[in-house]
């Protein structure tokens, strides 16, 4: 196993004036599971491919273990990659798919067999070893793809949106399997996804990327509870944080001339204020909240409405009585404040 360090890493594609990755610094500890998350085009897959050696870097340095790997070929970097499209050989059995890379490395037959049996036991694919990929389900194929990575016993695993081709139920199951696998192997892992729920579930540390730059790095719950910017606040969470252009005056949060919360310690002036949907308290008595529609999710409700012209989303339990006109309380302790122009946390 090995740590991974990125120093001022940049990537500019030929013919483009705008870098895809704009100088990323990141230190991934040995045995850590780090998830790169962000919207399409943020640079997360490009960053992963540069670590793997599938993309050249335009500037900066990448270190895996104690080796600078900038100019190394992918096969020399001691990493194993898992892709979203499985990348299995259709004409080979599962056993042959698992052993192929090891045979190319001239590994002894006994060691190959040992690794295959051990990996098959970990992933519970022992019954499929003589089958061809076409005889497997999507989840089974993804296990085999992970098995190809595991048998190599690499310094690090790189996952490029490995679950994106699976249906929602199978994705949930495979997330649990990947988490369990990491807890067992403790191999350094870098995982790319656009799914913030997947990212929150899997990560020891989360790296939120936006437009080729790191917005914030930290434990998932820390980022959720204390986002560094309106981008992170709006990206993490389902539903996302409510963000509103407002003003703090005389210790109160003012929106459209009405006070939404009082007793605030925030500095007076224009702000972007945020509050998580689950932090809003709805009461059935007539007040400032107008109901638009409700999403019934079984154990919870997502309540869509507005306060004045501001759209708001609240999350409540089934015991909360709903009506067309309600009162929404925004507890001051649950409010987040961001600079009105830069979007950075105040």
Helices and strands, with pairings:
Elements: E1 4-11, E2 21-28, E3 33-37, H1 44-52, E4 59-64, E5 67-68, E6 79-83, H2 94-104, H3 109-123, H4 138-150, E7 156-160, H5 168-185, E8 188-193, H6 196-202, E9 205-210, E10 213-218, H7 220-225, H8 230-235, E11 242-249, E12 252-255, E13 258-261, E14 269-275, E15 281-283, E16 289-296, E17 300-307, E18 310-317, E19 325-329, E20 336-339
Parallel strand pairs: 3-8, 3-9, 6-7, 7-8
Antiparallel strand pairs: 1-2, 1-4, 4-5, 9-10, 11-12, 11-14, 12-13, 14-20, 15-19, 16-17, 16-19, 17-18
Summed up:
The protein has 346 residues and is of the alpha+beta class. The protein is built from 8 helices and 20 strands. The chain folds into 2 domains: 4-232, P-loop containing nucleotide triphosphate hydrolases (Rossmann fold), CATH 3.40.50; 245-339, OB fold (Dihydrolipoamide Acetyltransferase, E2P).
Proportion of strand residues: 25-35%
Classified by CATH, the class of the largest domain is Alpha Beta
CATH architecture call of the largest domain:
3-Layer(aba) Sandwich
CATH homology-level superfamily of the largest domain: P-loop containing nucleotide triphosphate hydrolases
Could you list the spans in which at least 5 consecutive residues all have pLDDT below 50?
A: none
Helices and strands: which structural class?
Answer: alpha+beta
């Amino acid at each position: 196993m090995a740590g991974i360090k990125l120093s001022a890493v940049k990537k500019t594609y030929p013919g483009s004036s705008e870098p895809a990755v704009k100088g990323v610094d990141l230190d991934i500890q040995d045995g850590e599971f780090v998830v790169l998350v962000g919207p399409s085009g943020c640079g997360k897959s490009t960053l992963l491919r540069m670590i793997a050696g599938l993309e050249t870097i335009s500037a900066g340095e990448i270190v895996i273990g104690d080796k600078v790997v900038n100019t190394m070929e992918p096969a020399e970097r001691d990493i194993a990659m898992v892709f979203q499209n499985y990348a299995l050989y259709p004409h080979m059995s599962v056993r042959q798919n698992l052993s192929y890379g090891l045979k190319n490395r001239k590994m002894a037959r006994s060691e190959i067999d040992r690794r295959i049996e051990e990996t098959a036991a970990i992933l519970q694919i022992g019954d499929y070893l003589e089958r061809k990929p076409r005889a497997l389900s999507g989840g089974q194929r993804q296990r085999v793809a992970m098995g190809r990575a595991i048998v190599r016993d690499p310094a690090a695993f790189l996952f490029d949106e490995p679950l994106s081709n699976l249906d929602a139920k199978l994705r949930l199951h495979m997330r649990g399997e990947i988490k369990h696998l990491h807890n067992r192997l403790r191999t350094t892992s870098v995982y790319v996804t656009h799914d913030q729920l997947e990212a929150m579930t899997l990560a020891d540390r989360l790296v939120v990327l936006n437009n080729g730059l790191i917005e914030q790095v930290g434990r998932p719950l820390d980022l959720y509870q204390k986002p560094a910017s309106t981008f992170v606040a709006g990206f993490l969470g389902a539903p996302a944080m409510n963000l509103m252009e407002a003003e703090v005056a005389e210790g109160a949060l003012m929106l459209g001339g009405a006070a939404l919360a009082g007793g605030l310690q925030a500095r007076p002036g224009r702000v972007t204020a945020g509050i998580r949907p689950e932090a809003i308290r709805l009461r059935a008595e007539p007040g400032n909240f107008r109901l638009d529609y409700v999403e019934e999710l079984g154990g919870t409700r997502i309540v869509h409405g507005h306060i004045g012209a501001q759209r708001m989303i609240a999350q409540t339990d089934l015991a909360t009585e709903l009506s067309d006109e309600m009162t929404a309380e925004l507890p001051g302790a649950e409010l987040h404040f961001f600079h009105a122009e830069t979007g950075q946390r105040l």
